[in-house]
Amino acid sequence: MGRLDGKVAFVTGGGRGIGAGISGVLAREGASIAIADIDLDNAAKTAAELRARGTKAEVIRCDVTSVDSARAAAEQAVSQFGQVDILVNNAGVVGDHIGGGLITLEDWDSCYEVNLKGIWVMSQALLPHFRERGSGKIVNIASIAGRKGGAGLAHYSASKAGAISLTQSLARDLGRSNINVNAVCPGLLWTDMWRHLEAMIGRDDTPEVVDRRAYFEGYIRQNCPLGREQTPEDIGMAVAFLASDDARNITGQSLNVDGGIELN
To answer: Greatest CA span in the chain, whole angstroms?
Structure first.
């Protein structure tokens, strides 16, 4: 018996990286999974892996920056599964450039559109359904970068700080509707997003350079009290807790899953 037996989770950006890890853990806890993504190839692979384990999983195309796309995706999920109980706003981007002198307005716009506006748009798309059912769980994936601004990451850090603040506002607004809203702040994970950062830091995106993980591993040694990297499954376990009845009296909170890098 899992903590989420009989539940349906809608996971944006659920096809790879942290999203795939979240989808896998929620499925292990008994939930059916709607993988909402614009990357349909990776979403299909993740869905196939979940189905092979006996989980009901469907791929739904969704662009969280589009109100029409989000509404259509929400309606499709409700039609295919009969209900949605959990929304995980995981879709995120870091922009194409880092460094104070290199960040462009396009980088700012992409971070705002996906990392912050996307949470609002997708939440609004599913809120009528949650209210009709009389309950719902929303878990937003923020970042420890939203706790403290990082050098060269102004656009990303600001969008994730906004995600934490939006989580608190939604929690206050939706509590009377029996809807819990919380956030998880991941630390350092070796995902495609970090590989992208590694390439930008080293100004070299060849596989040989990126796969060395030199900067990544050095940062963990210097900054992580537990001395180990985090995994998508670590984030998934935090999401599963917040999405379960174990957290029924927790709302408006942001949980760091970072090995102790940020202590707030």
So the answer is: 53
Q: What is the pLDDT of residues 33-89, one digit of tens each?
A: 999 999 999 999 999 999 999 999 999 999 999 999 999 999 999 999 999 999 999
CA distance 173 to 157: 24
From 112, 156, 215, 219, the catalytic residue: 156
What are 262's two structure tokens?
Answer: 């940020």
- Say whether 156 is catalytic: yes
Q: What is the pTM of this model?
A: 0.93
Q: Are strands 254-257 and 136-141 parallel, antiparallel or unpaired?
A: unpaired
* 123-157 b/e (C-beta count within 10 Å ≥ 16 → b): bebbbebbeeeeebbbbbbbbbbbbeeeebbbbbb
Question: What's the gap between Cα 27 and its chain centre?
Answer: 16
What is the phi/psi pair of residue 32, to 5°?
-85, 150
Which of 73-87, 102-116, 131-145, 189-203 shows the lowest mean pLDDT across its residues?
A: 189-203
What is the domain partition of the chain in residue ranges?
Answer: 8-188+231-257
How many Cβ atoms are within 10 Å of 191's Cβ, its own excluded? Answer: 20
Q: Which fold has domain 8-188+231-257?
A: Rossmann fold (3.40.50)
**Angle separating helix axes 118-133 and 154-174, nearest 10 degrees:** 20
